[in-house]
Design brief:
With 480 residues, the protein is an alpha+beta fold. It has 17 helices and 16 strands. Helix 3 (90-111) runs antiparallel to helix 17 (345-366), helix 7 (154-183) crosses helix 8 (185-193) and helix 7 crosses helix 9 (200-220). The radius of gyration is 32 Å and the shape is elongated. Bound molecules: iron/sulfur cluster (2 copies).
Length: 480
């Protein structure tokens, strides 16, 4: 029986107890990842062009005068894919957030952190913009280490100065873009073009955002995914043996060992090496990893599924004339038991919940009222005594037209009978996407009113001659 030294086990298992980017004394260990290249990197690059184009241009795209995407939390204005959502649609916004969360849960349980590797703005900016600039200015990881450890020569000052200036300029553009999603692109341009003293709050926000983005991409980097991101934290509870993720085929790869001249000669003779797996322990998959982990240790929390190690290993396999895919998209169970990739019962259950939430969301969205009428008794008033045994109440009316075209609104009392409705301001014409407030008076003869002094009133609301809604309110009168 082979005797394994305790220190050997500890050494092999250290990845469970420490982060690749944190040194033993708790200080940051800077990760100098190699530049990835290959099929998956190419696909991610193409996708990043689409995502970046969308991110930077969507705030300038307008549909029916509405910004294509707007999340104005301050003024409670939301536009999603050109469709405006008002405060009255808040239940839909909540349901949409729930739907997006369930979508993330379903996708994570089936495809692992596919969001992180392919779609997340943090990864797209970091890997497709900032790191590429770093490679272009400072060179390979080896050259970067030499530069960082070397003295402050003219070359170092120039390279560092240039890199950080470009990083800050891009962070400034990103900050402006994010702000345009919050306050709107028109308002953003006003802040930029007007005299600075008129928009001190806006300018402060742009500066703070720029500094935060610069700090994240220049210094914090992978720590955002490993330590801060809440999605990164809870994904471990969502993945299981059947989740498809970037996985090392340990059955094929182990026992790992260097690819020696003897191995090469045996390969040329067409002999199979029975004592060795396909992994030649070259560490190319480790040196290319932006979070500094070794995927051969299995699925880990730090893995953002960026696919860089797949490309690196495929390249090695091609060179040593072995099949690609030693690291590939696969489920742990498909590698361990040789089973076909399939959906687990849990993923199917998540899928059912996802379908239910989507059905409710679509149904509520399709049936949402496009004319919203709110009738409230005017605060601080009770009733007015009129001639001929009649009483009057004053009401505050709020109209909201969610459609883009103007409407003609009319209101009529349905119950109780013999009521008179007198608008005290224009409550008839309302423009598209307009919110309007006004007052009206309702008069009832004493005989129509409830003896307890509180009568339920039903008002029929029509838009352009068609009944649109029934609104309820209360009428106050003296007790009989
Ligand atoms: S790149 Fe492939 S062959 Fe090299 S160490 Fe990683 S898994 Fe093994
Ligand atoms: S292990 Fe592979 S997929 Fe995961 S973060 Fe590292 S390089 Fe990317």
């Amino acid at each position: 029986m082979a005797i394994i030294e305790i220190s050997e086990i500890e050494d092999h298992e250290t990845f469970r107890n420490e982060l690749a980017s944190i040194a033993h004394d708790g200080r940051r260990k800077w990760i100098y990842a190699r530049k990835p290249s290959g099929k998956f990197t190419q696909y991610r690059t193409y996708l990043s062009y689409v995502l970046l184009a969308f991110l930077f241009f969507a705030p300038y795209l307008k549909i029916n005068n509405h910004q294509f995407m707007l999340f104005n939390i301050i003024e409670r204005k939301f536009v999603i894919f050109g469709i405006p959502f008002w405060t009255q649609d808040f239940y839909l916004a909540l349901l949409l957030i729930l739907f997006l969360l369930v979508t993330l849960v379903v996708y994570t349980s089936i495809f692992g952190r596919i969001w992180c590797g392919w779609l997340c703005p943090q990864t797209v900016f970091m890997e497709m913009i900032f790191r590429k600039i770093e490679f272009a200015i400072e060179g390979s990881p080896k050259q970067q280490i030499t530069l960082d450890n070397g003295a402050w020569t003219k070359e170092k000052v120039w390279k560092k100065g240039l890199k950080h200036s470009i990083f800050f300029a891009i962070s400034f553009i990103i900050a402006n873009t994010f702000l345009s999603y919050i306050i709107g692109s028109d308002q953003l341009w006003k802040i930029i073009l007007d005299p600075p003293q008129q928009h001190l709050v806006g300018l402060t926000a742009i500066t703070v955002f720029s500094i935060v983005f610069y700090a994240v991409f220049a210094r914090f980097r992978e720590q955002a995914c490993i330590i801060v991101c809440p999605y990164g934290r809870y994904q471990s509870a969502l993945v299981d043996e059947d989740t498809i993720a970037v996985t090392y085929d340990f059955k094929r790869g182990e026992p790992r060992g260097k690819f020696t001249k003897e191995d090469k000669a045996a390969q040329l003779r067409g002999e199979k090496l029975h004592d060795k797996g396909d992994c030649i322990d070259c560490h190319q998959c480790v040196t290319v990893c932006p979070t500094g982990i070794d995927i051969r240790n299995g699925i880990q929390l730090e893995c953002v599924n960026c696919t860089a190690c797949i490309d690196a290993c495929d390249d090695v396999m091609t060179k040593i004339q072995k099949p690609k895919g030693l690291i590939r998209y696969a489920s742990n169970s498909s590698i361990k038991d040789g089973k076909k990739i399939h959906l687990s019962a849990r993923s199917k259950a998540y899928g059912v919940v996802w379908l239910l939430v989507m059905t409710v969301l679509v149904t509520l969205f399709m049936n949402r009222k496009m004319l919203h009428v709110l009738v409230l008794r005017q605060p601080g008033t009770t009733f007015a005594v009129m001639s001929h045994d009649k009483y009057a109440n004053f009401f505050h009316v709020q109209l909201l037209n969610k459609k883009n075209n103007p409407k003609e609104v009319s209101m009529k009392i349905i119950s109780p009978q013999n009521g008179e409705l007198k608008p005290l301001s224009d409550l008839v014409h309302i423009n598209g996407q307009q919110e309007k407030e006004g007052r009206m008076m309702i008069i009832f003869p004493k005989s129509s009113l409830s003896p307890d002094g509180s009568t339920d009133v039903v008002i029929e609301v029509s838009e352009n001659g068609t009944i649109a809604d029934y609104v309820k309110t209360k009428f106050i009168s003296p007790n009989k």
